[in-house]
Design a protein that fits this description.
326 residues, Quinone Oxidoreductase, Chain A, domain 1, Rossmann fold, 7-stranded mixed β-sheet, 6-stranded parallel β-sheet, 10 helices, 15 strands
Length: 326
């Protein structure tokens, strides 16, 4: 088989597509991978900047979808079954072995590319909104980085949970994309707080979902909150870690909550399946994807690095040409 390996921490150029030994099944499930997700976290790994440190060389990739080759007796899985996979790393390979608890039935209505796009991003957002944010129908959700994979997941899940969704996007094309994906309102990142207040009122937001994490956005996010509002911190794609003055939280009766679903599920693997069942029970439309040929991880990573990605980026063995972006 072939697999991508991070050979050194020099960015996308340090990812090499090369022959590799097929994994042994052991106590896990062998899966022939059809599609694998590519995320900002994967990009950080290529630069050695992600919080999870794995000695090189190693195979990256946290989510995938494919077909079961073999499964342990009593696992509830069978050869030929379509599945999704969520693991700490290892998905950018043609064949992977994964723990039973991390292999999830893929609905017949969901494509392999959609399955690979749904695991990490959509489970993260569902965990963020329901378990961490305690979102309630009728509340207003503001989403930073709304045209990316996490942002689109937030828009779709937010609507399914009965939230009013407000997208913040970096340019007009991304703003329009967020609206096409179901956002109720969308504004540009430049001057977003004034635009939101002009449309919805002085303190209109109950929940802010923020994968960007820059200081200026954090300050304005806190200013946007209604009483008992909360900011959900998912990451720091903006390249800095903001500092929060806690007196703002006290005076506004507001909160800032961290969201790290990967770390949480490492300690509670038995919750992966129920969380996936809750997600698939929402019956969302397939997420929009930018699908690259499976061997072109460098191209997929550069799309994210250049901040041109819309929706989730995936590697697919069913795709022979790079995506047409529009």
């Amino acid at each position: 088989m072939y697999a991508h390996k991070i050979t050194d921490f020099t960015g996308p150029d340090g990812v090499v597509w090369s022959a590799a030994d097929e994994p042994a099944a052991g106590d896990g499930v062998l899966v022939d991978v059809v599609a694998a997700g590519v995320s900002f976290a994967d990009l950080l790994q290529t630069w050695g900047q992600y919080q999870m440190k794995v000695p090189v060389p190693y195979v990256p990739g946290m989510d995938a979808a494919g077909v079961v080759r073999s499964a342990p007796a009593g696992s509830g899985l069978s050869a030929g079954q379509r599945v999704a996979v969520l693991v700490p790393y290892g998905c950018w390979a043609e064949v992977i072995s994964a723990p039973v608890a991390r292999v999830l039935p893929l609905p017949d209505s969901m494509s392999f590319e959609a399955g690979a796009a749904s695991c990490l991003n959509y489970l993260t957002v569902l965990f963020a909104l329901v378990r961490r944010g305690r979102a309630a129908a009728g509340e207003t959700l503001l989403v930073h980085g709304a045209a990316g994979g996490v942002g689109i997941a937030a828009i779709q899940i937010g609507r399914a949970l009965g939230l009013r969704t407000v997208a913040v996007a970096g340019d007009e094309a991304k703003r329009d994309f967020a609206l096409r994906c179901g956002a109720d309102h969308a504004v540009l990142a430049d001057g977003w707080l004034a635009a939101v207040r002009g449309s919805l009122g002085e303190r209109p937001v109950d929940i802010v979902l923020d994968p960007v994490g820059s200081s200026d956005r954090m300050t304005d996010s806190l200013r946007s909150l209604a009483p008992e509002g909360r900011v959900l911190v998912l990451g720091f794609a903006g390249g800095e870690i903001p500092v929060v003055k806690v007196n703002r939280l006290l005076l506004g009766n507001t909160g800032v909550l961290g969201v790290a679903v990967r770390e949480f599920l490492e300690g509670r693997p038995e919750l992966v399946g129920p969380l996936w069942d809750q997600l698939t029970g929402l019956r969302l439309e397939d997420p929009p994807v930018a699908a690259f040929p499976f061997a072109d991880a460098r191209g997929a990573l550069r799309l994210i690095e250049d901040r041109k990605a819309r929706g989730k980026v995936v590697l697919s063995r069913q795709v022979s040409d790079p995506p047409v972006l529009g």
